[in-house]
Amino acid sequence: MRSVVLCFIAILTARTRAQAQTVTSPETAGGNAPIVVGYARVEPSASTTPAGLAIVDSRQNGVLAGEAGIAGTSTLVSGRTYAEISGSVNTAIAFENPNGSSVTISFSFTDQNGNNFGQRSFVLDGNQLAAKFLNEAPFSAPRFAGTFSFDATAPVAAVALRTFVNERGEFLFIPQTIASIPDPFSTGTVVMGHFVDGAGWKTRLNLVNTTDVQISGTVQFFGEGTPDTAAVPVNLNLNGQVANSFPYSIPGRASLKLETLGAVTAAIQLGSVRITPDSGSTAPSVSALLSLSRNGITVSQVTLRTQPAGLAFRTYVEVNSSAATAGTIQSGIAITNNSVASTTVNFELTSLDGTNTGLTAGLVVPGSGHVSKFVHELFPTLSLPFRGILRVSSTTSIVVVSLRLRYNERGELLMTPVPVTNEGTPSTTAEIVFPIVVDRAGFTTQFVLFSGITGQRTAGTMEFFGPDGQPMNLTIR
Questions:
Q1: Which of 134, 165, 268, 341 could form a disulfide with 199 if both were Cys (CB 3.0 to 4.6 A apart)?
Q2: Cα torsion 167, 169, 174, 176: sign
């Protein structure tokens, strides 16, 4: 199948036409044949653009070893991302040229001391895909940690992937944030909506300077607070230093890693992170790498990105069981209160076909505080299995993080970020691109498209292409 005609408003199913705000989720068939790599485009037809997520599963030795969530993306002409090449860690980048003519992509690297190197360029023909590790040609980067920056002569779609070979020899891969350059600079506090540390969990912040001049500021990790007490900064071991406030200074175009200790014997801590630039400075692009280890083996990693605060959000959720056992899929939500006074956050569920379930819930989130819950905890009477849309709203500004949690055949927890859309964001009719689609040789890719705006109705076509830009035949189930 080269294309799938879609009608969706909240969730997507490949061969059916939705009659209301629905979600759709076609999936490639997989199999043991040689691996197939390509890309997909979603083109709205006389309608607005949905939110989108590609869930790439990797089975190794008969076990689901990795699950990565790659958000559908629009195009950009210039960007910067954190990059690392070491013994077990590598960074891959994929560019898709949606234009009918060739594009020249210029790139360079910057180490964490602000030294620039490796400036080169390559040509990507129209409608073609280039996906390479950064230590491969045409990039040919040495071992380093820092940033990768690029400029294109016309808009391209791009995705960066962090790859990691764990202590068991399994290949894990997760998407990384690419900041558009110029970035919509902020001189105010940036909020990362979730961190976790202790009991095998640790969090690493990647701070990327999207400017050409030095920036500086302060990082603080806030606890959850209580219904009667606002959250305050907590003491953490960060890069070997124990404190509740951590100053940072980042050279132009460079990056900084800040990692919690993640002691297995320590009690688990949850909360949010606030990154405040100094006066006269701008905020960095921030992502958080959450890692979970069990018995000395890294079993899961996920990257979270910051997002602007808002009053109402929507996200796709899925629950097939409330038990933490093999095969279970659950959705988790983290809420950070962006104000100093406590607020009530309201939750509403819409089913797969767009009908209102009638289920609602509410939580009090302390001032500057944080609350995280599973969807089945919010709605204990929910009939399972369930797939649909969760609406999260408040009268004061909040930040929302959505995670898909899945237990593999070994009972290990895998994590995938799910897009959260702000209902106040203006609609668009631009196509979205999934720069990486992987199938066969143990891989499958599932696509989730949903309405990110209240009352949105959208229809269109998803098309699959190989790296050469020619239509790619995939079996969709």
A1: 268
A2: positive
Rounded CA gap, 173 and 301, in Å? 8
Buried b / exposed e over 32-57, threshold 16 CB at 10 Å, is eeeebbbbbbbbbeebbbbbbbbbbb
Residue 463 one-letter amino acid: E
Q: How far is Cα 195 from Cα 190, in angstroms, rounded to an integer?
A: 14
CA distances from 364 to 162, 331, 361 (A): 36, 20, 11
Tokens coding 89? 């860690």
Alpha-carbon dihedral angle through residues 118, 121, 124, 129, given to the nearest 10 degrees: 10
Residue-wise DSSP of 68-131: EEEE-B--EEEEEEEEEESSSEEEEEEEE--SSS-EEEEEEEEETTS-EEEEEEEEE-TT-EEE
pLDDT of residue 23: 56
Cα distances from 398 to residues 50, 271, 342, in angstroms, run 22, 13, 11
Contact indicator for 27, 447 with CB cutoff of 8 Å: yes
- The pLDDT tens digits of the residues spanning 111-132 come to 999 999 999 999 999 999 999 9
The b-or-e profile of 311-337 (16+ CB within 10 A means b, else e) is ebbbbbbbbeeeeeeeebbbbbbbbbb
Which residue has tokens 């204990």?
Answer: 380
**β-pair partners for 5:** 461
Average pLDDT over residues 436-454: 89
- The rounded percent of the chain whose pLDDT value lies above 70 is 94
Joined tokens for residue 46: 């006389």
Instruction: Pick the closest to residue 386 from 318, 292, 333, 304 (CA basis).
Output: 318
- Which of residues 32 and 447 earns the better pLDDT score? 447
What single letter denotes the amino acid at residue 433?
Answer: V
Q: Identify the burial level of 189 via C-beta atoms within 10 angstroms of its C-beta, where 0-12 means exposed, 13-18 middle and 19 or more buried.
A: middle
